[in-house]
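User:
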Amino acid sequence: MSNQSAVAKVVLPYAEALLEHSYKNNLLNEVNKNLSIISDTLSQSSDLRLFFNNPLVNIELKKNIINHLFEDQINTFVLKFLLVLVDRRRITLLSLIISKYFDLVYKLDSTTIARISTASALTEKQQEDMIQKIKIMTNSRYVKLEINIDSSLIGGFTIQIGSKKIDTSLSGKLQQMALYLNTI
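Assistant: Predicted structure:
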């Protein structure tokens, strides 16, 4: 069994438990906001990530830091959830648990995540048109766009939905032409 699948087997039950409790207690929106706050905090502070990932740091110290950082920002349930992760030495998986939680929420809401790379920024109208097209293609109620600006595409865009990728970029077309010319 690979390390990645072992981690996935550990992460999934925590994400499912978090989602189930949130859903049953009508806390879904609040928990979503709380986890976004936590995720933003972790992404902005590499020191905090290193602190949580360090097995030599005392568990009580980690709990104190969590209480100090998040006590006034998140609800009691999410705070207790974080403390349980510390007790079970799973706090190192927090970012993965949050990511898996949101994947499950999107699946529950019939939301499709579309990762778009484009050479230049999309206008609001282009984004809305893209959302409508992706809704039709995937039969989803909602579409969430994750947009990345990548000047190496030269022009056009790529869309990745799950394992499927659509490449309409100029660099993609040039690569296809180069492959075709190399086979002649």
